[in-house]
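Morning, I've got a small favour to ask if you have a moment. It would help a lot if you went through both lines with me. Thanks so much in advance, here it is.

***
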Amino acid sequence: MSEFNTPHADLLRLEPLPAIAEKWRRGRARFRAEGFDDYTGGHELFEAYEEALDLGAYLLRALERTDVDRDLCEQLVRDTLNLIQGVQTAAKGVPR
Protein backbone atom coordinates (compact mmCIF):
# COMPACT_ATOMS: atom_id res chain seq x y z
CA MET A 1 0.00 0.00 0.00
CA SER A 2 1.32 3.43 -0.91
CA GLU A 3 1.84 5.90 1.92
CA PHE A 4 -0.69 8.08 0.10
CA ASN A 5 -3.30 5.33 -0.07
CA THR A 6 -4.22 4.60 3.54
CA PRO A 7 -7.56 2.91 4.28
CA HIS A 8 -9.27 6.16 5.27
CA ALA A 9 -7.44 8.73 3.14
CA ASP A 10 -10.72 9.45 1.37
CA LEU A 11 -12.02 11.01 4.61
CA LEU A 12 -9.61 13.94 4.18
CA ARG A 13 -12.21 15.53 1.89
CA LEU A 14 -14.80 15.64 4.70
CA GLU A 15 -15.20 18.11 7.52
CA PRO A 16 -13.87 16.74 10.84
CA LEU A 17 -17.14 15.66 12.52
CA PRO A 18 -18.50 13.81 9.47
CA ALA A 19 -15.07 12.19 9.01
CA ILE A 20 -15.11 11.00 12.62
CA ALA A 21 -18.62 9.62 12.24
CA GLU A 22 -17.72 7.78 9.03
CA LYS A 23 -14.51 6.33 10.50
CA TRP A 24 -16.51 5.05 13.49
CA ARG A 25 -19.19 3.61 11.18
CA ARG A 26 -16.56 1.76 9.17
CA GLY A 27 -14.91 0.40 12.29
CA ARG A 28 -18.20 -0.79 13.75
CA ALA A 29 -19.10 -2.46 10.43
CA ARG A 30 -15.79 -4.32 10.46
CA PHE A 31 -16.31 -5.53 14.04
CA ARG A 32 -19.91 -6.55 13.29
CA ALA A 33 -18.64 -8.57 10.33
CA GLU A 34 -16.34 -10.35 12.80
CA GLY A 35 -19.34 -11.17 15.03
CA PHE A 36 -19.06 -8.39 17.61
CA ASP A 37 -22.36 -6.50 17.68
CA ASP A 38 -21.60 -4.51 20.83
CA TYR A 39 -18.70 -2.20 21.51
CA THR A 40 -15.95 -4.35 23.01
CA GLY A 41 -13.27 -1.77 23.70
CA GLY A 42 -12.16 -0.34 27.01
CA HIS A 43 -13.48 2.81 28.64
CA GLU A 44 -13.69 5.46 25.95
CA LEU A 45 -11.30 7.82 27.74
CA PHE A 46 -8.63 5.12 28.00
CA GLU A 47 -9.09 4.23 24.34
CA ALA A 48 -8.87 7.94 23.45
CA TYR A 49 -5.67 8.22 25.47
CA GLU A 50 -4.07 5.38 23.52
CA GLU A 51 -5.17 6.91 20.22
CA ALA A 52 -3.82 10.33 21.26
CA LEU A 53 -0.45 8.72 22.05
CA ASP A 54 -0.48 7.24 18.53
CA LEU A 55 -1.32 10.66 17.12
CA GLY A 56 1.65 12.14 18.94
CA ALA A 57 3.96 9.42 17.64
CA TYR A 58 2.82 9.97 14.05
CA LEU A 59 3.24 13.73 14.31
CA LEU A 60 6.74 13.39 15.75
CA ARG A 61 7.62 11.13 12.82
CA ALA A 62 6.12 13.66 10.40
CA LEU A 63 8.50 16.28 11.79
CA GLU A 64 11.38 14.17 10.49
CA ARG A 65 10.12 14.52 6.92
CA THR A 66 11.02 17.25 4.45
CA ASP A 67 7.65 17.35 2.65
CA VAL A 68 5.59 18.84 5.49
CA ASP A 69 5.02 22.33 6.87
CA ARG A 70 7.32 22.15 9.89
CA ASP A 71 5.71 25.07 11.73
CA LEU A 72 2.26 23.53 11.33
CA CYS A 73 3.48 20.10 12.46
CA GLU A 74 5.17 21.63 15.52
CA GLN A 75 1.88 23.34 16.41
CA LEU A 76 0.02 20.07 15.95
CA VAL A 77 2.50 18.36 18.29
CA ARG A 78 1.90 21.06 20.93
CA ASP A 79 -1.88 20.74 20.50
CA THR A 80 -1.60 16.96 20.79
CA LEU A 81 0.44 17.20 23.99
CA ASN A 82 -2.30 19.43 25.42
CA LEU A 83 -4.92 16.93 24.25
CA ILE A 84 -3.04 14.07 25.91
CA GLN A 85 -2.80 15.99 29.16
CA GLY A 86 -6.51 16.79 29.02
CA VAL A 87 -7.46 13.17 28.43
CA GLN A 88 -5.13 12.08 31.24
CA THR A 89 -6.87 14.52 33.57
CA ALA A 90 -10.32 13.34 32.49
CA ALA A 91 -9.34 9.66 32.81
CA LYS A 92 -8.08 10.17 36.35
CA GLY A 93 -11.67 10.93 37.35
CA VAL A 94 -12.99 7.60 36.09
CA PRO A 95 -13.87 5.33 39.04
CA ARG A 96 -11.97 2.08 38.98
